[in-house]
Write a structure and sequence with these properties.
378 residues, alpha/beta, Rossmann fold, 2 domains, 4-stranded parallel sheet, 39% helix, Leu_Ile_Val-bd, Peripla_BP_I, BCAA_transport
């Protein structure tokens, strides 16, 4: 599915001709439908909202923005096809997208081979390590999530854990990253299980973990419906140990799917966006996250999520690069990696030729679910 947005209206879905107003064309391939739609839908809506806002305000350096957007449904093969179409047919100057790690990894070769700046919205550290000339990302990495979780476990004197992971690209990547750094925190993985993201019951795996001697907490690396099912099964089994989830479920929909009672006490690392009102007034992110949250909710009627926030940051970083460098792809790339002190929904971003993420662990908040909502772990 293709969607093209201009200053006046979004007409592609109506099959009508678009007015020839846009002069800077940017592309997106997102998982607006399919199993990752809870990630991709707010990303797509955020990009549409921001393009409309910029164009209404006069565009970028007087030029209108055209957003050419495809829905890959979470299919890596479709994502690669759409990325190729964006470059070869639509002639975009930059791409935002890659809702999932799998779709992102299929877009990267297209962007790199054609020297088109690409800002990914997915989590795996492999996206930006090793550094690739034209590929950037806005979400915190899975390795950073592991480190933040293990810091919290260490503070709670937890030394032995069970690990359960989804076999999808993100789940497997975070599983590997957690295993790679866990020893740095004096923590041992004493039980390990996996599940297919399409599984409807993880009771057998969780029972195995529960029955393992010495387990003091459980960590689930995954996104989509899997973590919600894990959370419900965990409560049904009355495991009675701290449960940690990844930043891949940092949205209110996770609590709704898992059930507030089952999710009570679950901890996970996330961006400040989820707890905007709880931030001190001195926090430089507070006006940014509240501004985006209020605009998004007024525009869509839906609650904000960190995933839409990833798209917000990607667009704003790209917008600043376009304002600075114009619409030539290599110049845009150079301007993106010169980004310093950008205050976004994910943290304060400082990019460079050697760092195509620009965030550190301070950008993460450790959150705990209490009473069906997010709280900050002090």
């Amino acid at each position: 599915m293709k969607l093209t947005t201009t200053a006046l209206v979004t007409l592609a879905s109506l099959g009508l001709a678009l007015p020839a107003l846009a002069e800077i064309r940017i592309g997106a391939t997102l998982s607006a439908t399919g199993p990752a739609s809870f990630l991709g839908d707010p990303e797509a809506k955020t990009l549409e909202m921001l393009v409309e806002e910029v164009n209404t305000a006069g565009g970028i350096n007087g030029e209108q923005i055209e957003l050419v957007m495809y829905d890959d449904g979470g299919d890596p093969n479709k994502a690669r096809t759409f990325a190729t179409r964006l470059v070869e047919d639509d002639e975009v100057v930059a791409i935002i997208g890659g809702t999932t790690t799998g779709t992102t990894m299929s877009i990267i070769p297209v962007a790199e081979d054609n020297e088109i700046p690409f800002i990914s919205l997915a989590g795996a550290v492999d996206i930006i390590e090793p550094v690739k000339p034209f590929t950037f990302k806005t979400p915190h990495t899975d390795r950073m999530a592991c480190q933040k979780i293990f810091e919290d476990m260490q503070a709670r004197s937890i030394t032995k854990i069970g690990l359960i992971a989804g076999t999808d690209g993100f789940g497997a990547s975070m599983q590997a990253q957690c295993k790679g750094v866990v020893g740095n925190y004096g923590i041992e993985i004493v039980a390990e299980e996996t599940y297919d993201p399409k599984d409807a019951d993880m009771t057998p795996q969780l029972t195995n973990i529960k029955n393992t001697d010495g387990v003091q907490a459980v960590l689930n690396t995954g996104f989509g419906q899997g973590p919600s099912i894990v959370t419900r099964n965990y409560a049904q089994l009355a495991v009675g140990l701290p449960l940690y989830q990844s930043h891949g479920v940092a949205s209110k929909s996770y609590i709704e799917l898992a059930g507030a009672e089952a999710a009570e006490g679950v901890r996970l690392p996330a961006a400040a966006l989820l707890v905007a009102d709880l931030l001190p007034d001195s926090d430089p992110q507070k006006p940014v996250v509240i501004g985006y949250r209020d605009s998004f909710q007024a525009k869509t009627g839906a609650p904000v999520s960190t995933f839409g926030g990833h798209a917000y940051d990607a667009f704003m970083i790209l917008k600043a690069a376009l304002e600075k460098a114009g619409a030539e792809p290599v110049a845009i790339r150079d301007a993106i990696r010169e980004t310093k002190g950008y205050v976004g929904t994910g943290g304060i971003v400082n990019l460079s030729a050697e760092d195509h993420l620009g965030l550190d662990l301070s950008a993460f908040k450790m959150l705990e679910i209490k009473g069906g909502d997010w709280t900050i772990v002090q």
